[in-house]
Every structure is written in C-alpha cells, then in structure tokens.
C-alpha cells in the first residue's frame, strides 16, 4: 500500500484557489408563493397570549338641530364653556379623552378615545348631555321583558350603552307592556330595532311544564340519561329533569316550538305507558347497605335500569327508612330484585378493636404498615376513627376477613412491645418543656425513641401522653417529671433598671452580662427589646439563685445611679474660657479632684449651661468649685427671694418664657427655682450686683401682679342654666368677661361638682362678675311660658333660612325659646318661654314683625335673564347682602326649560317634543314668557323694596370700551391669560380682548357700573406703565455687530459657555452668534443699551487680539498615539491644554492623519510640542512591539512580504468575490468597514465628523 502523503500546515492554510463568485458566496433566497399559513411555523415558539390593544376610538356627529348648546363661544374670556365643563367632567369620571370640533354646517363632531368599555359609557353621557333628547314607547309582551333585562339587568345595560339611550322597562308588579326609550332619534331607532329583534326571537320559542310524577322520571330519562340525550340531539330543545333530592312532579322543556312539541309527545307517551304497565315491590335492606345498591355516582341503580328496565327508589340518607322500592313490569321485577340483593351483599363491614393510641403505630411511618394490607387486598377500605378504639374494615366478604386477621396480628404484636404513660404537668410549664424551637422535646424523643404528645394551649389540659417502647416510656416519663419538679422550684422576678443603663450592663459584645450569667449560671436574664423603651428586666431560675442575682443587679443599678447624677450650673459665657483654663488645666483639675464628667457647650452655642455628671457628692463639689471660679472673676452676688410655691409655675410661664425673658433682660442673671415637687418658697438669683437687684425687683412686681389677679369666688347654678349663662357662641359670658376682666370657669362634663362655677381675677372684677351672674341666675329662676297667635301665612318668614329670625330674637331677649307649630300642623299658636321680661320683649318683637309683614308690598324688578347670575354674585353673595341691609325678600325666576325637556306636571299622554323643535307659540305669548323669566320679585316695606330694587339695578352689568394699543394686548393678557384672569377676579368683571386677526385697539369691559369703572381705570394705568416701559425697551434694543474670524468663536464662547456668559452678565447684553446655515459666519450681534454693547464689543475684540497674537505650530505625531494623548473622554488632552495654556487640534478625516496643530503663546507652543514628541517616543516602541506580537500570532504566510506590508500600514485585501453586480456596472467596490454602507441592525449610524477634535462649537 502506498503511503498517504500528508500536506504540511502551510500547504493546508494557503492552497491557491480562485475567489468564489458573487452568486456562490451570496445565494439568492428561494421565492415561494405566499401561503395563508402563519409567519411562525407550528414548531417554533409562539407567545401564549396575543397582545391586543385595549383602546378604541369612536367618532359621532351631533346635527345642528339636535345640539343642546348652539353657541360654543357663550362664555367669558379665560373661562370654560358649559359644554367644555361637561366634557371635562365626563373625561375625569370615565378615564377617556374627548375632542370636539365644529363643522361648516354647525354640526358637532365628537371623538372619544380610551378603553372600549369606558368609551361606550362616555359616549352615552356625551349624547345625553350635549344632544337634545326625544322619547318613544314600544309595546313588548310582558313574558319577553326578562330576556330584555338579562341576568341582573346586564343585557339592558349593554343595550343602553350601545344605543346611547335610556330604556325604561315596567316593574314586575306593573301590568303595562309599554317600554319607554329616551335618547336621540338615531339611538331610539337603533334601540327600537334591537328590542323588536329580541321579542321576535322569543316569540319563536316555546316553554312547557309537563306533569310527570317523580317516580317515573327514571323511565323518561332512561339508563344513564340515554333517552334525554337522544331527544336533545334530535330536537335541539332543553329538557330539565329535577334531581333526585328535589321533590317535584314535573319536567320542563324549552326551545323552538316544533322541538318542544316533539319532546312533549315522546315524554308523555313514555309516562303514560309506564304508568299503565308498571307495578311496585318493596324490600327491606340494611341502611348501611343502601350505598352499595346505589353505587358510585348512582351507577348501581342505572345498571339495574339498563339490564332489567326496572327503576329502583332508595330513601335519602337522612331518612331512617330501610325500604327500597322497585317499579317496573311484573316479569322484570324478579331479576331486578336479585340484582338489588346481590349489590347490597357485595360489600361486608367489620370492626376491629384497637386502642386509639395504637392507631398511628398500626398505620406505620408514612402509612407503610397499612399500605401493605391494602396492597394485598385492593378492594378493602380501612377507616380509622379518631378518639375511638375501633378500626372499620369494608369490602368483599372474603377479603374483609383476611384484612381483619392481618390487623389483629399487628395489634397483638404492638400490645406486647408498646406501652404508654400519662403524666400531669402544669400547662404553664409546657412551653419550657418544649423549649425554644422544640429543642428540649426533640432531644427527649431522640434519646428515648418515644412519642410525646403535649396538648395545645387551646385544649387547656395538663395531661402529657408518652407512647413507645416500655423502657423508653419510663425514661422519658422520669425526665419530664424531673423537669417539672425543677420548674416548680423556679421563680420569675422583675427588676426595674433605667433603660439608659442596659447597654452599660450588657457591655461591649455582651461581655458585661456574660460575667453576671457566669456568676449566676442557673438564672436566665432577659432585657426588653430596644424599641419597647421598657425599664423591666426579667430574672428566671431557682428561687435562691434568682434572689441573689436580684440583689446583685440592684447593687449595680444603685452604683450606676449614684455615679450618673447630673447637675446643671449656669456660668456666664465670657467666663467659660477661664473655667477651662490654659490648655484645659482648670477643667482637668476639677475633673480629677471630683471624679466627675463636665460638659461645656460649644463655642458658638447660645447656651451658657455647664453639665456635671457623677456621684451626687462629687457633682455638688464640682459645681461649687466652678461657681467659686466665677465669683473670683466677677462681682457676682446671690440673693434669695421668698415667692409662694403655688405661684412658681405661673411666674416661670409656658416653657419658661417669662423667667427666660427676665434673665435675658437683666444681663443674663441666673434664677433658680426649687426642684419640681418641693414646697419651698425660696428662689435664688445669682449674677452681677446691679443685674440681681433689677431681676429681684421684676420678680417681686410679677408676684404682686399674680397675687392681685388670683382672687377667687364661687357661685352655684343648675346645670341646665349653664347654656343660657354662656349664651349662643359664648356671647353672654363674653360680655361679662369684657366688662369685669374676670375669668369664669364652668365645670367640665367629668367634674363631680356640676353646679359649681368658679370666678378668678382681681377682687373688684370678681365681685362685679359674681353680681351679674347671680342676677342672670335669678332671672332664669323666674322662667314663664306664654303664647300668642301668628297668622300661618307668616310662619315661613320666621323659620326660613334655618330659623335665622328666631335666633336673632333669642339672642336679643336673653335666650328665650320661641316654638312655632311643626310643618303640616294647622295652628296659629306660637309658644314663648323664658324669663318674664325677656318673654314680654320677644312677644312685642314678634308682633312688630307681623305688623311689618302685613304692611309688606311686592315690587317687580325687570332685569334680563342673562344678567341674573351676575346680579346674584358668587354663591348669591350680592343678593344676601341686599336682603340683609334692606330687610326684604328677593325671589329670582326659575331658569327656562331647555329644548326637548318636558315640563314637570305635564300629562303622560302628551307627545314628546322632537329633537331641536319647540312648540310654536304666537308672538304675544312668547313676549309674556320672556318678561316672566326676566322679572325679579321683591317683598318688604315700600321704601325698603325701592332701595333694594335700586341696588339690584346698580348691579346690572354694562359694557365699557377702553382704548388699549394692539401691541400691549399680550402684556394685558399675560402668560396663558394669567394677568387678565387676575384682573377679572379682582374687579369682578369680564374683559374681552379682540382676537389678533382683527388688529383692534378696543378692549371691552363688562360688569357692574362701579366695578367696570374701576377696571377701566386699572387698564388705563397699565397702558401708561407700558408706555414708560416701551421707551426703555427701545433703548435696550440697540444692536451692534462685530466681525470676528469664526475660528475664534469657540474661544470667545469658552467651555460650556463660561466666557460668553460672563460677558453677557457683566454688561447686561444679549450676544448672538451666527447659525451654521447663515451666509456670513463671522458676524456676532450684540443687543442692549448702546453704552453696554460698546463695552461688550471692546472686550470681545480684546480676546480676539490675544488670540491673534498666538502662534500655530504643526507637529507630526503618529496617529496610533493620538488616543493615548486624548485620554478617556478627552481628560489627558484637556490637562495638557491647561498646563501649557495652548489649544491642541487633532486632524480631520481628510488630510494627513499624523498632523497635530498647537496654538498659543510662542514659548508655550514649543514646550508643548517637545512634550508631545516625548510622549510619542515613549509610546511608539510599545505599539511596534504589540504589532510584532500580533503578527507572530497570525498563521504563517506564503508571501514573506505580507507582514511587512501590514506593519507599514498597508491594509489586507479582505474578502474578494468575482462577477459581483458592481463589476458589471463599473462601480467601485463597497467599503465593508463603513457603517453607512453596511449598518448594523438596531444601531444608529453616526454622521461623519466635520471638524477636528477639540471644544464643540456653539
């Protein structure tokens, strides 16, 4: 055999071959006719749920004649129209967007966008609010109404949404067949059609209740419901047979008439036949065997019916009867009876006695033992009853006997080798026996191999049961009893330790508490959680150990308390440096001598309090030493003032405000009151001598003032009198306080002395207040009741406006009670109750009011309906004020009824008005109607009515035209109409500014004459102000242009605009650079005051001069070094430019890629050039070495020239093909490295840079 020649690696890698053709390298895709198959094949993954849009858009048109709001511009400037408000409210409630537009024919186009269900709701609301409504009636048989309503009325709701109408179906107790439809003409027609369709569909259906006795239902249904299924398939009708648990002698059939008729014929023929030929026989079968006759899901009875044609009736489970009835033909009853007995005796039941505690051992771990028996006897069912000493075995007789024997063998074996024990342990110890996370009880179970059952807290039992092998039971019982005895000897004790000391006792990483626990290792010490802020520490363990630990902890706590006593001493801020001493010598000495901690406030803190912490005696000693230093340094005097301790709180004031004010006023003296809880009267004042005297004088003056104002008196009054003494809103008691200066305190609801009223204040004022209250109480004791007659027609006046007139009478006459008859009671009797004088005064007042009412007249004031809202004012404020001032009643007419709405009280037989139409009235009637709508009724005294009428007419709006130059309109309106809206609110007027298309100077102001005049003056003042500002704007609009070479623009702008922003700010000018597409790129425009623009120009020219004085030098730096010079995000090159104060520009895409341009001062440019050349020399060798290593890693080449060519910068040929399309057309080969000709999927192609690297041109 010839030896196979293996080519070398070089030959394998570089076998010369022709380039592939274009068609071979890029084969065309196969073109197939597009099929109807889905784009994704069935084997590929597809999303489980198709994403569907949840939004939809509906467009509908409202014709002009059906529009409710004819004029879309009927609203004030800056306000929303009523139509817009309605749409805005609908959008907010339904979460949709609504757009409205007006066509040339004045029809309204409405576009509703949102979720489909919300769009339907919104459309219905829009139609009902913006389109006039008509109504129609449709007669539908009552039996079809329930199909129109649907389940829970859902079908009717859907119908209303689809048709945008309101459909009213008569109530169940109403015998009417008329259904009312309200809505637009189009909607009514659509709804009418849908209702008629539903009715016609139901008219084709039939419904029958067939009287079939329940005993014969099985014959009708057939075995396994075969007859019913066959009938349903043949006729398509629905047949409803009551279940066996429902005692009904009927079968319901529904569906199309023909199908129902056929079903009725078949069912009734079966019933009649079986009723005629059937006989019955009854047998007694044990109740427990009934379920075997029935079989699973009734299959047993159905099998008997199928094989014999006999129906078997089994009594219900809750019945005590054991009788089973068989019904069928006489010759079939025998075989059926045999099958009943066979099924009844097919299953036997037997009980096996076994203690309940052994059940789980019989079952075995995870049911292993019992599973073995059930696997050997699969037809046997074994049931364990909890709490009972028996096991029930059920199944075929022979298998039941075998399973019973197997169970008895297991029970006998378990009784020989298993035992149990029950012990009594107090339930409070159960959780300790279980242990944390069950650790204790798990340990006992593992060591003894027994099962321990501990009752739950809800069982409230002390019995613990142990089950298992005898030796393990004895051991576990002994251990549990020992634990119980040990716990009974334990005790739990709480000790109070300030929470601030808990951390100190525990120590770093628990070292402190570990020492205590080691000392008392039988005691469990529990600290409260940090978040609870509790001082209680719990100790638990043996009694003696707990008591010892308690004493130890008490001692530790006491020592901590003694060593953490705190005292505060006030030292004048200027002396703190003397307390500290040079280098802290004084304060260190005091700390060492007294063994205390002394904390001084910071140098800039306002506090002058020094805090001392330590043992009580040491703290006092340190305090004395610090005060001695202060006494030596200044003329400090101490004075003691006797002030009754009961006045201390009132002198200190809320949060110490009063006493702090005295200390600050008197040069910062220190005033010290006795500690809270002490009854000492001594108050200490310390400070400079003069300041102490001043503070002492102020304190004594304050004490005398408090003594004078602390006189107290008491009076008694029945609790029911208190509200009359206080008065409505506290008016009566306020008068007493203001006249006497005394403070009157009534008992609170929880006070025991409910009759006691306390008066506090100066003696004179208290006595005066006491006399006034006693007089008022005496008057209340003389309460009388009287009545008077008031004509019923005047009752409304007294009780109107929530009884305002009656409240005024009660306030005026000592809180008398005036009672008018209840509404609906025909009586003129009015009852007045109160003190005698007050009752008489109120009675006279009521009589005077009635007299005035009798003299009242009615005056008509005609004001056009369109002005009524303006006249009434916001929330009726204007009318209420006129009514109050002139004591009259004012009634405005009701609003006119909109088109299409039926007047209240109109008869049901009246035809509804068609959309957009109104009843034709003659001219006279129309004029009367308009006059009635414009008439305001004023009731009261003649002179008051005239005054009220004049006040109303003065509120009728007028329109004033104001000359405002068109150029100023935008300043009047303000941003988004803000200024004009504010002016309208301030003057309560409407300001109409002409649209820009009119180019008009006339601004219309509408409102009350007085308000309109004020608004006119405000507008004129605004025009004057704008005239003045116009001159300033003209001066500030001076423009100056300066020619600057575009290459200097980046330097003038500066980094992030820093340089140009500074020039703008310094000279208050606007500087505009030319846009890139402008023809003259060198012109910079400066706008501002003339003088400022010239200064800004000079500064720019100064910068340009400095730039032109610079030199430019080109240096050749290998382009491979450029990225290293630039650095990440240009950091390195920016640092170079800052260090050498030069500008460095890298080459553009075209030209020599190695040329770098440096611009700046001559010396700096040459220094920077040297630095760049040094960088090149440093990095160039690294780059050459890297490229050499890369060449070594490439496969060896046949051509020894290729590596050199690549190192010299020549690029490889890349992928070459023959016969490509560009060869035939003579075009150039595409550049595969270009992202523009070969873009990546999903990537954005960056445009080619048009300038060298450097600062971005603004």
What does this structure look like?
Keywords: Coiled coil, Cytoplasm, Repeat, RNA-binding. The protein is α+β, with helices and mostly antiparallel strands and 1258 residues long. It has 48 helices and 45 strands. The strands form 15 sheets. The protein has a three-stranded antiparallel beta sheet, covered by helices on one side. It has a three-stranded antiparallel beta sheet with strand order 4-6-5, with helices on one face. A three-stranded antiparallel beta sheet has the order 7-9-8. It is extended and about 130 Å long. The two termini are 82 Å apart.
Features of the shown structure:
single chain, 1258 residues, alpha+beta, three-stranded antiparallel sheet, 45 strands, disordered N terminus, disordered C terminus
Gap between N and C termini = 82 Å
Radius of gyration: 54 Å
Instruction: Report helical residue fraction.
Output: 40-55%
Number of strands: 45
Mean pLDDT across the residues is: 78
What would you call the structural class? alpha+beta
- Major sheet: arrangement of strands: 1-3-2
Residue fraction in strands: 15-25%
- Sheet with the most strands? 3 strands, antiparallel
Subcellular location: Cytoplasm
GO molecular function, one term: mRNA binding
Pfam family, one: KH_Vigilin
Keywords: Coiled coil, Cytoplasm, Repeat, RNA-binding
